[in-house]
Amino acid sequence: MSGYHRPFRLQGLRSDVDTGTAIFLFLAGAAALAYSAFHIGRRWAVGVQGQGVVTHSRPHQYGWYLVAWVLLPAGAVGFVGALLRITAWIRFTELAIVGSALAAAGAGFWLGHRLLKPELRARRTLEAIMRRLLLAAALVSILTTSGIVLSILFESIRFFQLVSFLEFITGTDWAPDTAFTGASGGAEPHFGSVPLFAGTFMITLIAMLVALPVGLLSAIYMAEYASRRVREVAKPVLEVLAGIPTVVYGFFAALTVAPLVVDIAGALGLDASYNSALAAGLVMGIMIIPFISSLSDDVINSVPDALREGSYALGTTRSETIRQIVLPAALPGIISAFLLAVSRALGETMIVVMAAGLRPNLTWNPLEDMTTVTVRIVAALTGDQAFDSAATLSAFALGLILFIVTLTLNLVSVILVRRFRQKYA
pTM (2 decimals)? Predict the structure, then answer.
């Protein structure tokens, strides 16, 4: 028994409930205490005012002051207890965590009630608490983005310790499947990412050539020409495209668009593959149309009517007003919608897998099969390779480069939007 080490465990309570039940007990107990605290704090303030004493804040604000004293300690203790349990530093039971959190809520209620005084500035305290909660909510996205970047960056550094960075960004041959045979006399693995990014940009370009004119023209029609009845029907129908799962688009591309592309190419005397960048790009463009159309429609509708009326007063036609007044004024928003759609296209995977194939192919011919960065990331992370192998770590390097490309597009978008906004303000 001397060699046996018992992990520390909070005794006295047995875990005879599951996690869902524990969460329900915590929420129910905290809600009951908060409800009681609100009414007790409010009743206290009303009683004090009834005695002719002037309070700094309104009665309900003292109630919410007590609610804050109940919920904040309970939430903090519950979060810390759950974190300790997840990390296995201390083996708390579910009931122990719930009991500790509710005990902290009760202690907070007692302390908050002791602090109640007519001169207590409950309103300012609540405003400070809400400001900090909103700041914490705003920091969530920043911290999440930072965590994503750091996790990708560290794994990418491990990859570039195994593979030359210059070879990765300039190589034209992507063949990581030989990574296991290279050490035993087989072919050396190659991690040239140029074919992957070439396929990504090729398919994205085709998609934008479809989505930008169709989406923008449909937005102009619905904002400037369509009647109210037509708009109420056409706009929701168009936005239905945004809710269709991408796997459905993939089936449509593989079963309908790809054979159609092969037949048309054959009629023109061209040789086309059933897995082609053109088929994937066309369907991806159809999928992106609602993004450009909906955002552009909102931007065009936000242009002040005074600009249109002034243009009409000078004798211009509707089409001239749209071309020379409305579109330049709405150009910053249209640019933002376009670059948002580009980012959406760069990250698409399912349509490419089902319509364009999996083969890294460096070619300028859109009728041939090719693949994209996101497809290879999925393939690298879902195989049977070891996690610390170059074949698996290549997914993080690809993700890092794709992140840099997307970030560059966003920066360009910000610069262009500011430039045109200053010009047409």
Answer: 0.73
